[in-house]
Amino acid sequence: MEKPPIEKPMSEKITGPGAHARRDPVLLLQNIPFAGFLGVRLELAGDELTGHLPFSPHLIGNPMLPALHGGVIGAFMEITAMSQLGWHANFEHMPKPIDVTVQYLRSGKPVDTYARAVVNRVGRTVANVDVSAWQESRHHPIATLQAHFLTG
Amino acid sequence: MAAFSNPGYPMNQPPFSDMFGAIIDNTPYMKAIGAYYVGKSEDGITMALPWRADLVGDPETRVVASGVVTALLDNCCGMAVWDKVNEFKPVATLDLRIDYMRPAWPDQELKVTAKCYKLTRSVGFVRAFAYDVTPDDPVAAAQSAFIVSSPVPKPNSGVA
Predict the structure, then answer these.
(1) How far is the C-alpha of A94 from the C-alpha of A117, rounded, in Å?
(2) For position A31, which CATH number holds?
(3) B155 φ, ψ to 5°?
(4) What is the least distance, in Å, from the CA of B56 to any CA of chain A?
């Protein structure tokens, strides 16, 4: 007998990022304190998440330019990758990164940043994800990221 | 010895690394996460970051988010290039590869040591390790390349 789906209130704490969060991408980040520290938001269009990092003065790495800290852009893309992967596949826990490569293309201006991830492959133990981050125009990315995550 | 590695650098001036503590303290994001400059040794430039609840990636394990390790590695690698250049020049990360070997222990201070093992006229190549208890049990390893540019003189600034 198949049980009827249980509607969970949004405020309820979840343990896994996958199935429980399907109705609301906000739930994917609920359990990551560091995502809250950065101020990362997620928006959903179809099955594609867009990470949104609103500008905040504490994210500055170079006050003279000024420019966002490279570590902020890297972390933001990593969180976007993990969230898209968590959305894509139903994992018990947030996938753990094995390795991450970041290419910095332009300096991050003190404005809002966006990122989208493409899940290239989800295997039994490893998933491969690409991320691109941009500010004014998606066609002018400020950084890209390739990552492998542990899925098993 | 570092002061003599750049022939163009005046010998009577203190090494640029003397400024690193102040530079970190004036970098908003480093201040926000609570990172600080430890010092330099034969192994390179070392920075540290005390554990904090709002930097956690997984509340169940209280392990610091991998993105925090990324920022510390990126910053420390950049400073290792600056140490080799030994004067102020704009340094920008070209790429950064990080291998995450194990989670960092909760409540432990995270440290990063970075060494710029080769500096050409425009590129610095850096190897770095993040660790908590001992350097021989690393949390993460990084390999990175940085572009070193000459400061663009502002008009009427008098700087050639």
Answers:
(1) 15
(2) 3.10.129.10
(3) -60, 140
(4) 5
> In which element (H, E) is residue A146 found?
strand A141-150
Q: How far is B26 from chain A (nearest CA, A)?
A: 8
- Residues 113 to 152 of A: which have CB under 8 A from any B CB? none
Query: Between A and B, how many residue pairs show a Cβ–Cβ distance under 8 A?
Result: 128
| Mean pLDDT of all residues in B138-160 | 79
A130 in any annotated domain: yes
Calpha distance B9→B22 (Å, rounded):
21
pLDDT at B53 over 60: yes
Asked if residues A83 and A49 have their Cβ atoms less than 8 Å apart, the reply is yes
Q: How many domains does chain A have?
A: 1
Measured between CA atoms, how close is A39 to chain B, in angstroms?
Answer: 12
* Spatial separation of the C-alpha atoms in residues A50 and A38, rounded to whole Å: 15
Q: Which CATH number fits domain B2-148: 3.40.30.10, 2.30.110.10, 3.40.50.1820, 3.10.129.10?
A: 3.10.129.10
> What pLDDT sits at residue B3?
45
Residues in chain A within 8 Å Cβ distance of B66: 75, 78, 96-97, 100
Residue B33 is which amino acid?
Answer: I
CB < 8 Å to B65, chain A: 32-35, 75
The whole-number pLDDT of residue A23 equals 52
Residue A88: which domain range? 22-150
Asked if B67's CB is within 8 angstroms of A38's CB, the reply is yes
The answer to whether position A145 is within a domain reads: yes
B95 vs A15, A97, A102: nearest CB? A102
Tell me the domain boundaries of chain B: 2-148
Q: Kindly provide the residue ranges of all beta strands, DSSP E only, lying in B1-159, ordered along the sequence.
A: 36-41, 44-49, 56-58, 63-64, 91-100, 110-119, 123-131, 138-148
DSSP-derived letter for residue A65 is T
Q: What's the pLDDT band for B80 if we cut at 50, 70, 90? A: very high
Query: B72 and chain A: CB distance < 8 Å anywhere?
Result: yes
